Amino acid sequence: MPAWATKTRLERTRVTAAADKSVGRAVVRSLWFLAAGSVPVPEPAAAERARGRQP
Fold first, then answer.
1. Residue 51 DSSP one-character state
2. Own/partner pairs, 49-52, CB within 8 angstroms, 24+ separation
3. Is 33 contained in some domain?
4. pLDDT tens, position by position, 19-55
5. Where are the alpha helices (DSSP H) in the chain?
6. pTM for this prediction
7. Do the beta carbons of residue 7 and residue 26 sit within 8 Å?
């Protein structure tokens, strides 16, 4: 198991608590940590268009 996976599993409770605190109530039921590169990253211009901005 990679070191990053172990670290994220150990910090899962802290991350969940921080997310719930920022919202003001318990809303997080589960977390999925994906390995770097397992999800395609959009091009910067596409990300700006998705936010409603023009590059």
1. T
2. none
3. yes
4. 889 888 888 888 777 776 767 776 777 666 666 665 5
5. 3-23, 44-50
6. 0.47
7. no
CA distance 21 to 15: 10
Sign of CA pseudo-dihedral 38, 48, 50, 31: positive
- Token look-up 């719930």 returns 20
How far is 26 from 40, CA to CA, in rounded Å? 30
Both tokens of residue 6? 């172990």
In a domain, residue 55? The reply is no
Range of the domain at 25: 3-50
Q: Is residue 26 part of a domain?
A: yes
Asked whether residue 22 is assigned to any structural domain, the reply reads: yes
Number of domains in the chain: 1
Total length of the chain: 55
Name residues whose C-beta falls within 8 Å of residue 28's C-beta, 6 or more positions apart in sequence.
16, 19, 20
